[in-house]
Design goal:
Helix content is 38%, strand content 27%. It is α+β, with helices and mostly antiparallel strands. Strands 1, 2, 3, 4, 5, 6, 7 and 15 form an eight-stranded mixed β-sheet that branches. A seven-stranded mixed β-sheet has the order 9-10-11-12-13-8-14, sandwiched between helices. Strand 1 and strand 2 form a beta hairpin. Helix 6 crosses helix 10 and helix 7 runs antiparallel to helix 8.
């Protein structure tokens, strides 16, 4: 899917009831290659497939996304369409509420089928109330607030933060985002790790298509040099997906991650939730995400449609 095709698609799909980062239009576009994913539109429903999908064979499919103003029962129509076209149907990345919707349709209209759902904790999203990350009020956020205060005290009047979106992004800001990513990549000897190479390519793609993806972000400076960045985009009008957050090593030791987290959140008050995505089963990442006291841990489920 090209950026132009994606832009046209973005104007039509309805993600207003979705919370998961897998439903972020930007993620659907950016992770096509890494996830071996493809999209297909049929009768005003967007299907997201994973792997090599051929009609008549095994299909691994995420929860369908309807188009705006669609009045049909898109779940019923989607399951009917998928059953008619694929010999094995597997759903993935479904939230608990979505599994219940699918189960209800199966019970009512396809009673010969059922799904045994399984969850993978490493795929669960962490959602936070925007006001909590922006304000860091109360005892439970004291450590995070201390990190921010340490950053401010360490760099005194030598730091500043810039919020940007498609209304004020320019080529200089784009170059600074890439500069941080490249320095971060070198600090970790990224060329030795395929996952870091893939992530670097995705970040370059995100910056190149910043306006099309309706992205926003922040840059943290010390002595007018960019040292940390974050990039985000909407899942819906009420949920913002934080895709990337990077800080160079030295400022990171002095609280840069906590600082850019709060400073960016303070500019996101039009959203109720900030989705900081999954922890990938990495213990340190899980500990960090839990330390911000998520309001919702959004579990994801998968399962194969089977005959009873």
């Amino acid at each position: 899917m090209t950026a132009v095709e994606f832009s046209q698609l973005l104007q039509n799909i309805d993600t207003s009831t979705f919370l998961g980062n897998d439903c972020s239009p930007a993620n659907i576009f950016l992770y096509q290659e890494q996830q071996q994913s493809s999209v297909f539109v049929h009768n005003q429903v967007l299907y997201r497939f994973f792997g090599n999908i051929q009609k008549g064979k095994h299909a691994k499919c995420a929860f369908p996304i309807p188009f705006k103003y669609s009045t049909d029962d898109f779940i019923l129509n989607s399951i009917d369409y998928l059953l008619k076209n694929y010999s094995i149907l597997e759903f993935c990345l479904c939230t608990e509420s979505q599994t219940k919707l699918i189960d209800n349709i199966l019970n009512l209209h396809f009673p010969e089928y059922h799904i045994e759902w399984e969850s993978d904790r490493s795929q669960s999203d962490y959602l936070y109330l925007q006001q909590n990350l922006a304000q860091l009020q109360g005892q439970k956020y004291q450590k995070k607030k201390n990190h921010v205060l340490h950053f401010i005290k360490t760099y005194e009047n030598h730091w500043n933060f810039l919020y940007f979106d498609k209304s004020n992004i320019d080529e200089n800001i784009k170059k600074q985002i890439i500069l941080i990513e490249e320095k971060w990549f070198q600090e970790r000897n990224g060329s030795s790790f395929s996952e870091l190479i893939a992530e670097r390519n995705i970040i370059h793609n995100a910056v190149e298509n910043f306006e099309v993806l309706n992205m926003s972000g922040g840059l943290l400076y010390i002595n007018n040099e960019p040292v940390a960045m974050t990039l985000a985009s909407p899942i819906s009008a009420s949920v913002l997906d934080i895709h990337f957050e990077k800080s160079l090593a030295e400022p990171a030791k002095n609280g840069a991650y906590a600082a850019i987290n709060q400073f960016f959140a303070q500019n996101c008050n039009s959203y109720e939730y900030l989705n900081r995505e999954e922890d990938l089963g990495i213990p340190g990442l899980r500990k960090a995400k839990l330390s911000y006291k998520p309001d919702i841990i959004l579990d994801k489920f998968s399962g194969i449609l089977q005959k009873k």
